[in-house]
Amino acid sequence: MGKNRSKRRDTNLFDSDDDDSMSSASTGISEQTLAQESERVTSKDHELDMFLDALYEKRGATREKALLGLVDAFENHVLLEFVENKSITLLHQFLNSIKRGSSKEVSLASRAIGLLAITIGCGSIAHEIMEECIPNFYQALTSGSDSLKKSAILDCLAVICFVGGEEVEEKEKAMKIIWELIHPKSGSNVTLSKPIPIVLASAISAWSFILSTLNPRNINSQTWRESISYLSTLLDKDDRSVRIASGEAIALIFELGRLDKFSQEDTGFYENEKHEGAKPPSGGFTYVETLKGKILSQARTLSMEAGGKGSAKVDLNNQRNTFQDIVAFIESGSCPEHSVKVLNNCNHLVVSTWIQMTQLNFLKRFLGRGFLKHIQDNELLHDVFDFTPRRKDNLSIKEKRLFLSPNSVVNKERTQYLNKRRSWTKDWKQGHFKVGAEDV
């Protein structure tokens, strides 16, 4: 028994030593990994702080390089910890660059502000960013003619209102600034000239992006009475990006369901080659129906446009696809469903309304290569699209049934929504929504 007890003691001692050894090795690896990770994070934070310090330099090239570094970091990471206590300092330095910088510096600073707002997310800080930026942006948009600078500021203005706008009046104020750039004759600033196509397309997209956040009941009908009539004239412009942006804006207005709020009997609507000298039909509802018919005809033509000399195939296909979706929507009331691949073996982001399409297209374009990173890790985008990436191989059988099955709750809710939309469209076509009728 003594020998057996001795053997057990030796065995326990060996096991203990082995466990201690493995534990020690594991701890060593863990500490080493943590140290490396800590060093990497510290190094990254130090680099970001150096970029921030460089924004105080007098030399424009130095500030541009720092802005480029910060923009790259904002695109590739969701820098919540970095901006937590530095957001207002960053904002003020970005605004200084907009006030005194070159065209390139202004464009980078505008982009940096937009990325800062997307990183911060909704709340008081985002609202403060919007309030401080709008006066500076208005000044920049109504003076000078630099298209690169104006396009960047328009994108940023749309983003900060999308994230930080809390009241309808605030958003409509920004939309009015943008609309006066789209249609200079509509505003009081007589010094504004017609924007070149790249600025016009950016302005229409920015205006639509903010519009996508408004409740149709709260839209000021007097302010936007002429918008869809004017947008329909832009479908005949030579520039394809302007046509696409205008088409998407029109589809969004159709989906909001208050076409009468965005149109008026305007003789300017008929002053083109096809309708020269024609008079608008009398009667509000008749006018809206006529306008709708004209837009549908334009959309059909653009959805089948043949490629001409010098026509980029990608741009042409983009136009055809966009207007095919618009035609289908106007005719059926259903926005075609689109899905976006986020990660391999991961559930797709699915959008099935023009509101979602408008927001998705704008954010994809604005974030560029940073879109996939932000749609994976940024809670703001998760809230906007009601979407959280999930790896399919990690889902339980119950979760797969819930999210992926054709009979899943998610798919049933989407089907119910589309059915309601079709029913609404049928009623609308039958005249249940009369011009000037009150919202129900």
UniProtKB/TrEMBL annotation:
Domain Interferon-related developmental regulator C-terminal: from-to ranges: 378-423
Pfam families in UniProt: IFRD, IFRD_C
Domain Interferon-related developmental regulator N-terminal per the UniProt entry, residue ranges: 23-331
Domain of life: Eukaryota
Region (Disordered): 1-42
Regions of compositional bias (Polar residues) in chain numbering: 27-36
Family: Belongs to the IFRD family.
Name of the molecule in the record: Uncharacterized protein
Organism: Spirodela intermedia
